[in-house]
Amino acid sequence: MASLADAQPAIALGALDGRYRAAVAPLVDHLSEAALNRERVRVEVEWLIHQTTHGIVPGVRHLTDAEVAALRGVVETFGPAEVAELAEIERVTVHDVKAVEYFLKRRLAEIAPADEDRGLAELIHFGCTSEDINNLSYALMVKGAVAEVWLPKAQALVDQVATLARELRDVPLLAHTHGQPATPTTMGKELAVLAWRLGRQLRRIERQEYLGKFNGATGTFGAHALALPDVDWPAVSREFVEGLGLTWNPLTTQIESHDWQGELYADVARFNRILHNLCTDVWTYISMGYFAQVRGQGTVGSSTMPHKVNPIRFENAEANLEVGNALLDVLGSTLVQSRLQRDLTDSSMQRNIGSAFGHSLLALDNVSRGLAGLDAVPDAMAAHLEANWEVLGEPIQSAMRALGAQGVPGMEEPYERLKELTRGRRVNGDDVREFVRGLGLPAEVEERFLALTPQTYTALASRLVDYLP
After folding, report:
1. Is 224 a catalytic residue?
2. 24-128 under CATH 1.10.275.10, yes or no
């Protein structure tokens, strides 16, 4: 048997880099191993520029504008050739961050080749432990992935749900609590609930802080303070970290504590769980005939039953949300822990961030495509409402309670009387109207309830949709 492992180009082991590559490809620029190395190069370059610009090490000349541009160009042009070169260096160093240092020293020798400039190379990675570079790199990677890829996709989906809610704001829907017929609502209002919940989580995620530290091997600026005791190293550290667009963390061990990551992943996971709720609700509405999947008629629903159009987008999304959340949960719980001043579990764990966001992004794509293929079926919703006149027992007994409290005679035991009429049996419009006529209600109240139907008993549901931003 031929070995698939030897095939060229290499066959992906996982679904994200195989079957679903197109949907998650935008994350490669942010959360791949190559993106990690590019951000490491960026941090090292910016640290070298920062040192020379601010004269931190006495006697070292400033880089020229052209040299600064050339160094930043190394980051901007970082591509497959550079990835391969770094891999070659790492095979010798057997250390990923050290490989980045040597890679940059090669580039600096090309940018500033004069003999008197050779000392500049010693400022690459000066005073740094690997985690000084890695924590900033991961913060930049995750920040970019969230701001440029995940959040726009998530916001677009929330907007899509909100638009659908507004379109269906007035379409009456039989609610179900505990799986039983309950007070009618509108399809728009129920979708608005989900859009509101999802939007609230996005607003939390938009406010997320991305922390970074730059303080040496155990967070004490030990080597820095002894090498250059006259420098205000906390001030230098803060200015450098904030210059990268991150929030400075002044108190750490060797590693940045990753608490911000735990906070972010918990919020993203919560968004995903609400989205999972949307998937199961819409799936159920489809099964009840409230939505028809009529677009994209060329697709195959079932391999054997031609009439079927399966709600596969929502089912696929459910699965990917569950896998993504499993990863987000373990990332959030593991990364906030470290033995004493450092252990290496976070290094391996953080390499799964891309997979966690990949499954989440794939779910967003599937839900969006699933919603785009739906058409509401108001007639089906109306038919279920017409078959459940007993739901009017709630407003009738509530009105009787209010009248009884006002001293209107004959309004005793309203709940019990409606229970006797409706519980365990089906009633129709004639049954309800006959019951109402026999209650002795004031004329205007009786008229109101004689005109009421399950389809019109939606109260303020339509108006509540207006609370969506």
Report:
1. no
2. yes
What is the rounded distance in angstroms from the CA atom of residue 364 to the CA atom of residue 154?
Answer: 7
Q: For 43-63, write each residue's pLDDT tens digit.
A: 999 999 999 999 999 989 999
State pLDDT tens for residues 312-351. Answer: 999 999 999 999 999 999 999 999 999 999 998 999 999 9
Q: What's the pTM?
A: 0.93
Query: Cis peptide leading into 9, omega within 30 of 0?
Result: yes
The active-site residue out of 178, 303, 307, 348 is: 178
The yes-or-no answer on residue 50 being catalytic is no
Report the range of poorest mean pLDDT among 61-70, 277-286, 415-424, 429-438: 415-424
CATH topology of domain 388-461: Ribonucleotide Reductase Protein R1; domain 1 (1.10.40)
pLDDT digits 0-9 by tens, 185-230: 999 999 999 999 999 999 999 999 999 999 999 999 999 999 999 9
3-state secondary structure the chain: CCCHHHCCCCCCCCCCCCCCHHHHHHHHHHHCHHHHHHHHHHHHHHHHHHHHHCCCCCCCCCCCHHHHHHHHHHHHCCCHHHHHHHHHHHHHHCCHHHHHHHHHHHHHHHHCCCHHHHHHHHHCCCCCCHHHHHHHHHHHHHHHHHHHHHHHHHHHHHHHHHHHHHHCCCCEEEEEECCEEEEEEEHHHHHHHHHHHHHHHHHHHHCCCCEECCCCCCCCCHHHHHHCCCCCHHHHHHHHHHHCCCEECCCCCCCCCCHHHHHHHHHHHHHHHHHHHHHHHHHHHHHCCCEEECCCCCCCCCCCCCCCCCCHHHHHHHHHHHHHHHHHHHHHHHHCCCCCCCCCHHHHHHCCHHHHHHHHHHHHHHHHHHHHCEEECHHHHHHHHHCCHHHHHHHHHHHHHHHHHCCCCCCCCHHHHHHHHHCCCCCCHHHHHHHHHCCCCCHHHHHHHHHCCCCCCCCCHHHHHHHCC
Catalytic residue among 54, 95, 302, 398: 302
Give me the CATH code for the 131-296+309-377 domain, please: 1.20.200.10
The neighbour count for residue 14, using CB atoms within 10 Å, is: 11
**Which residue, chain included where needed, has tokens 């030897």?**
6
Domain positions in the chain are: 24-128, 131-296+309-377, 388-461
